[in-house]
Amino acid sequence: MAIAVCKEWKVQSYVQQRDKEWPTEGRHILAQYDDDSIVVYQAYSPEIADYAVKHQRYSTSHQYCRDQ
């Protein structure tokens, strides 16, 4: 059985990241990684998140597009 290990991820305010770290144009993938894992940030609308939490899966409705 695998044992979960808590990671110490770098955390900054949105404004600090936006102003100093992120590219100013184009599409971006926000993530952090180490030798063992990759953590990717994905934003969803409240409706998509509520459905996913309640049903433990994403909706097949047109509101959610995996190609974005």
What is the compact description of this entry?
The chain is α+β, with helices and mostly antiparallel strands and 68 residues long.
SSE blueprint:
Layout: H1 14-20, E1 31-33, E2 38-40, H2 46-55
Antiparallel strand pairs: 1-2
Task: Please describe what this structure looks like.
It is extended, with a radius of gyration of 16 Å. It has 68 residues and is of the alpha+beta class. The chain contains two helices and two strands, in the order αββα. Strand 1 and strand 2 (38-40) form a beta hairpin. The model has no long low-confidence stretch (mean pLDDT 78). The chain has one domain (1-68).
Structural class: alpha+beta
**Uncertain segments of ≥5 residues (pLDDT<50)?**
none
Q: Give the SSE order as H and E letters.
A: HEEH
Report the count of strand segments.
Answer: 2
Shape: extended
Mean pLDDT: 78
Strand content is: 5-15%
Annotation field: number of helices: 2
What's the end-to-end separation, in Å?
Answer: 35 Å
Specify the biggest β-sheet. Answer: 2 strands, antiparallel
Keywords:
68 residues; alpha+beta; two-stranded antiparallel sheet; 2 strands
